[in-house]
Amino acid sequence: MAVEHRSLGVFRLLLERGYQLEKENQDQIGGMFIRAAEQGLLEVIRWLLKQGVPVDATDFAGCTALIRAASRDRLEMVEELLRAGANPNHRDNDTETALMWASDHEGNAAVLRALIEGGADIHALNDLESTALSWAITRGDLEMVETLLDAGSHWSNPSLIVHAVHRGRADIVKTLLDRGANPDTEYFAEKKTLLEFARNRCLRDVANLLRQAIADKELQETGGTSPPPLYPVGTHVRTVSGTYREGWIVYTEWNFKHGRYGYYLEVEGHLSIVKMARNDTGMMTWRS
Q1: Where would a tag sit more exposed on the chain, N or C end, judged by fewer CB atoms within 10 A?
Q2: In angstroms, rounded to a whole number, what is the distance separating the alpha carbons of residues 134 and 145?
Q3: CA dist., res. 230 & res. 251, Å (int)
Q4: Can you give the pTM of this predicted structure?
Q5: 94: which residues sit within 8 A by CB, 6+ positions away?
């Protein structure tokens, strides 16, 4: 009860009065150990370890103290348990590891780094073939995603960029595209391209990133060498075809087939490709 309620004063008093573990009740001792780790009670954990409690004792779900501490962002506890010999690759009853549990909670990048340094397998798959990186993307934590990628986690699985696009996380989409993810990946559930999905969901920033990545991929395949167009993606423009209409550049291409700059503009919800043309007022004219 003292551990359950984080009451270190009561815990210390009990020890002073001669409290002894009931060694025959291993399930209760293991439960106390795991609960103390989850609560971040380092003093209790150190005492229990001195009493010979197994560092990889498991609870009803097959979780160890390390898994529970990792899931609660208990960095000091994670480091303590790893020093005590905790297995960073133990799997619970659902085949999840401590790294997966940590990745399933936002703001856990420091714990991820500690687990990786402690020998956690970043490529481990659960029974649904998900990795720690899958969970980090699902939670939308860019720092955790970058931590796993920097450690060598595979980015090539198409489901990863699908998850990032589905959740509208432009920052994570950009990170995956920069690493080499394929922008032409199909969105599995609806048999659409990722770009079509992003446009249908009005995910403008994500759609712009995908359009630009597709254009860059086409340029690489055709050997384009010209410098990029003058105007970057996201530039607001006004057209001078008839009445002025405001729009923005959604992606660009250069030296592609015709050896010229080109801009894809979105105006009033419609896309058109135009050849670069400027007048003294900085406006662009339709040349579609």
Answers
A1: N
A2: 9
A3: 12
A4: 0.74
A5: 61, 62, 126, 127
Picking from 123, 178, 115, 108, the residue whose alpha carbon sits closest to that of residue 153 is 123
CA distance 214 to 91: 39
Amino acid identity of residue 210, one-letter, is L
Distance CA 36, CA 48 (A): 10
Which range, of 1-5, 194-198, 215-219, 221-225, averages the lowest pLDDT?
221-225
CA distance 9 to 286: 76
Q: Quickly tell me which residue has 């923005």 as its tokens.
A: 248
Residue with tokens 């990722």: 194
